Amino acid sequence: MQLLNVGFGNTVMMDKIIAVINTGSSPARKLKEAAKMKDRLVDVTEGRRTRSILVMESNHVILSSVQPDTISQRMQALQPGYNLAEYFDQQK
What we know:
This protein is of the alpha+beta class. It has 3 helices and 6 strands.
């Protein structure tokens, strides 16, 4: 079990994440509202702007103030055999 930091010391189980999506689209807003209506919305933004939405296996939706790219990088860094220095060299 690996825990992924999604901001402000909050963590989620990485293997339970189905998707990390950007908040800019209409379907993302609808997903957020549907989760709120079903009491499956978890807000870990600490009052900040929501930048990413995590969809979990349990149908819970987690709102995070961390950028989707940052969450993706954190997920990749936790993968076994992943070389973080090599990733940043490729980005240059």
